[in-house]
Amino acid sequence: MDILAQEHAKYDAATTLMHMSRQVLEPYDANNLRKIIRNTLYAKEPVVVVDELKKRRMLQLQKFSFENIRDYIGTDCAYVPRDLTNSDVLKQQSRLRIPTDFCKANIEPILRKDENPEDGISVTVYDSEGKEYLMKYKCWTSTGSCVLISGWKDFVNYHGLKEKDPFGLWVFRHAQTDNLCFAVTGQLDEETLIQIKKEGILM
């Protein structure tokens, strides 16, 4: 049975039990219900729905089509392929570290005067399907590191990301709002990357 179908079945079962909670059952029906509950609670092979959903979302992230974020990209677009490191996915860290040379070459030059990365800049981050996540872009003067925080852990958990997972990191000014935005997607294939460069989309 499909994962979503299982979830619907569970909801229907829970609703039915709620309506039955105040009903008096016949002995035969009550005995059968007890058997069903016992078999469900002590099943030898429980269905791990959460892990399956995370696996599906991770695959969706990797099956990336540039068209899903094209309409959001206005100006100053840059892209870098990366693999997630252990510290990128640690719960205690809760941040995505962005390569320093990428920040200096592609992010610092496009910041407005009212945008101070040391204080933190509120940004929108898109995934491979164009869904929005609110985060902050922040640079720590003590280490010189620049990161995405305040929402990155939820992004990792939702997509089931792990160390060494490949991804593409985008930065750009939004086509409508001109706000600083990022996208964390699957990596581009070489053919698509060449085509995007020909169109003048990437800096």
Properties at a glance:
single chain; 203 residues; alpha+beta; At1g16640 B3 domain; seven-stranded mixed beta sheet; 7 strands; elongated
The count of strands amounts to: 7
Give the overall shape: elongated
Overall average residue pLDDT:
82
Run of helices and strands: HHHHEHEHEEEHEEH
Named CATH architecture of the largest domain: Beta Barrel
Q: Which structural class matches the secondary elements?
A: alpha+beta
Number of domains: 2
State the strand order across the main sheet: 1-6-7-3-4-5-2
Q: Into which percent range does the helicity of residues fall?
A: 25-40%
What CATH calls the topology of the largest domain is At1g16640 B3 domain
Q: State the CATH class of the largest domain.
A: Mainly Beta
Instruction: Report low-confidence residues grouped into runs of 5 or more.
Output: none
Radius of gyration: 23 Å
N-end to C-end Cα span = 47 Å
Q: CATH superfamily of the largest domain, please?
A: DNA-binding pseudobarrel domain
Fraction of residues in β-strands = 15-25%
- Profile the largest sheet: 7 strands, mixed
What's the tally of helices?
A: 8
